[in-house]
Each structure stands twice: as C-alpha cells, then as structure tokens.
Design a protein that fits this description.
Length: 248
Amino acid sequence: MTGLSGAPVALITAAAHGIGAATARAFAEDGYRLVLADIDATGLDAAGAALPGQVATVLADATTETGSAAAVDAAIARYGRLDALVNVVGGSRPGRTVVDLELAEWDRWLALNLTSVFLMCRAALPHLVTTGGAVVNVSSGAGLRGMRANPAYCAAKAGVVGLTRALAIDHGPAGVRINCVAPGPVRTPLMQRNRSPAEIAQLGTIAVLGRIGEPGEIAAAIRWLASDAASYLTGQTIEVDGGPAPLV
Ligand SMILES: NC(=O)c1ccc[n+]([C@@H]2O[C@H](COP(=O)([O-])OP(=O)(O)OC[C@H]3O[C@@H](n4cnc5c(N)ncnc54)[C@H](O)[C@@H]3O)[C@@H](O)[C@H]2O)c1
C-alpha cells in the first residue's frame, strides 16, 4: 500500500519545551518518526536538533484552523502517514477568580487548552483511522480536582477529560484509541514562569512522593498510552501526580 510504509509517525504539539519536548524524546527512543509543532521557532529548532532519527518541525499555532491543519499536513507531506497525535498545548496564568476575569482572557485559556485539542483531532482523525492510531491529550490535575484562582484553566482541562471520552466513543469503532494524562505539578518553563522557587518547593510537599514531577515522568505515561501495550485502553484519564494528597 502506498504511503503506509516505514516506522510509525507521531505528531507532538508544544514540542519545543517542557512536557512536549520530553515526549518527543520518548517517542524518538521508541523509533517513531516525528513532527514537532510549536509557535517558538528557536525552541523548535533546538528541540529538533537534539533528537535522533527522522524529525520534522513545523511552526504551527494549534489554536487556529490553519495552524492545526498545517501541523497535520506536515506529517502527511513528509511521511505519508500518521500513527500518534499528542496534544500537549496548554497553559495558564493563575491569579484571578471568575469575578476578575475578562471575557477575552476566558476565551484565550479555553482556546489554548481545549479548542486546540478539538482542532488538532479534527485535522488528524482521518489519517489516524487509516493507521489505527492513537491520541493522547494532556489535561491537568486542575481539571479533575480544581485549583485556586484559575477557573478558565480548570474548566478547559475538565473539558479535555470530557472531550477525550467523547472522542474515544465516536472513533473507537474505527480503531482509534484516545486517552489522556492529567499531570500534577511538573518542573517546566510554564511552572517556572508561574511560581517562585519557594512556591515550587511547597508544591512538592503536596504529593505523596514528596516532590514535583519531571517532564520525562509525564512523557513516560504518554508513551505507554500511545503504544500497543495499552491496546485495550481508551477514553481514560490517568493522573500522573506523585500520588494524591491524603485528607488527613
Ligand atoms: N507544568 C505543569 O506543572 C503542568 C501540570 C499539569 C498540566 N500541564 C499541562 O501540560 C502541558 C504542557 O505544559 P508545560 O509545562 O510543558 O508548558 P511550557 O509552557 O513549559 O511549554 C509549552 C510549549 O507550548 C508552546 N505553545 C504555546 N502555545 C502554543 C500554541 N498555540 N500552539 C503550539 N504551541 C504552543 C510553547 O511555545 C512551549 O514550547 C500543558 O497543556 C499544561 O497545561 C502542565
């Protein structure tokens, strides 16, 4: 069959830094051919150059129809197939409750964290059906258990959990698995932008394991969910958070 030869192909968004970059490393180790998508050209070049194997990069804003389509088109143009989509794009800036939140800001966080997943899946699913591929979305503990002064992020990340289940129901019969990871606090540029070193140390005391996570520890769960080792798993959200804090 033309266009379906060679090693599997993974498209990873937000791949220039943090969890996305660590996920790209994990998939490269598993022998995937990669497309890294991000809006940071310099970071994208550095992330791509650091990886072994076949790596393509694409400057693409996952919150737009053109950007999401361009990312998927890059995978098909370069490799002729798509086996895994990892939707890592997301983020927030805590500090406001609903009372202080401008509508434009609400819309911005919803677009970044939830609409991006919808757009990327819409563009990729026709190709994932062809390969019997997998999607892994990145939510957050904030979407399951909440977080102070970050209502748009909490709502959007809860939406990612619901969208994951909806996608799994609709596209499982066609052979595509869609799962989700919900990380706790992870040491990434996002974390370092939003929290002081003292706050990061404090966050580490919340987890049962007594520390915050490293990007590679989230990537390990994503890699497993995309692999055949998780072949009977779909619609699920796995918390990767060092263990939930006990009530007492
Ligand atoms: N770091 C944490 O503690 C933590 C915890 C729970 C969930 N998460 C989630 O994990 C994901 C990754 O977080 P991170 O900490 O690695 O973030 P990060 O900010 O460190 O890296 C995000 C990357 O996304 C890129 N990006 C931003 N907007 C984009 C867009 N519109 N299109 C394409 N790329 C874009 C940035 O250029 C950057 O390379 C996010 O969805 C975040 O909400 C992070």
